Amino acid sequence: MSESFTELYTTMARLRAPGGCPWDREQTHGSLAQFLIEECYELFDAIQHSEATDDTAHLKEELGDVLLQVVFHSVIAEERGDFTFEDVAKGINEKLILRHPHVFGEEELNSAEEVLSNWDELKRRQREASGQAEKRGGSILDEIPVHFPSLLEAQKITKKAAKVGFDWENNEQIFLKIEEEASELRSAIDGGGNIEEEVGDLLFAVLNLARKLDVDAESALKKTNRKFRGRFKFIEESLEASGEQLGQVSLERLDILWNDAKRR
């Protein structure tokens, strides 16, 4: 291991040792799980920020926070005699080599699509070899965690279904589906139908269009959220500069400022 990583691992082990930090010593794999999710979301946000600004300082910091979670779990596992960080690193390195036979072996794969297809086939073979083959009567979707955020879950399950041929043939068919779902939502609103279900169906159709266009829906929506934040902040600052207060001006006034923000 590098000197910096060895120092990090030693620091974490010291925090866990007798006489170390009481909070760190109390943590378990389970108690740390939520922190890992939070750190990953913060890293995701830092990636979006770096893509938009070319500023990678925050990205470096958040990568460190995620790395800390990996080290923390590894130290706990080593204390229990389960495995070490060396085992973790060795395992993922072996997996990378096994799943890239076109780089480390003799197989020829000439496109990203071929690589992904072969990756899935290798995963299937490895599951079978380790006794984790799909149970009879199970679904190919069972391996996708149901606790994923809904947008990520939807992306995963639609990709999985598309790989076995359950997919629209072209984008126009999805546009028609979006129009159909929008119409059903209008009907539900007018006739007292299940509005929540119809909203979900409409979102699901739009997400499928994003997948078909090779757009990551999570990243796309995140960028739109960031754009909305920036424009809304402009509205707030403009109102403050003119002595007006948010919530006490007309929608027409807000629309004018919104359009100003878009032009800027």
Summarize the structure.
This protein is mainly alpha-helical and 264 residues long. It has helices spanning 3-16, 22-26, 29-53, 57-80, 85-98, 101-104, 112-129, 150-163, 171-191, 195-212, 217-241, 251-263. The chain folds into three domains: 3-98, MazG-like (Helix Hairpins); 134-215, Helix Hairpins (Orthogonal Bundle), CATH 1.10.287.1080; 218-263.
Instruction: Tell me what portion of residues adopts beta-strand conformation.
Output: under 5%
CATH topology of the largest domain: Helix Hairpins
Which CATH class of the largest domain? Mainly Alpha
End-to-end separation in angstroms reads 49 Å
**Number of strand segments:** 0
Globular, elongated, flat, extended or rod-shaped: what is the shape?
A: globular
**What Rg is obtained from the alpha carbons, in whole angstroms?**
25 Å
> What's the mean pLDDT score?
91
Indicate the structural class: mainly alpha
| Total domain count | 3
| Architecture per CATH nomenclature, i.e. the level-2 architecture of the largest domain | Orthogonal Bundle
Give a verbal description of the structure.
The chain folds into three domains: 3-98, MazG-like (Helix Hairpins), CATH 1.10.287.1080; 134-215, Helix Hairpins; 218-263. The mean pLDDT is 91. Helices cover 74% and strands 0% of the residues. The protein is mainly α. The chain has helices at 3-16, 22-26, 29-53, 57-80, 85-98, 101-104, 112-129, 150-163, 171-191, 195-212, 217-241, 251-263.
Keywords for this structure?
74% helix; 3 domains; globular; 0% strand; 264 residues; mainly alpha; Helix Hairpins
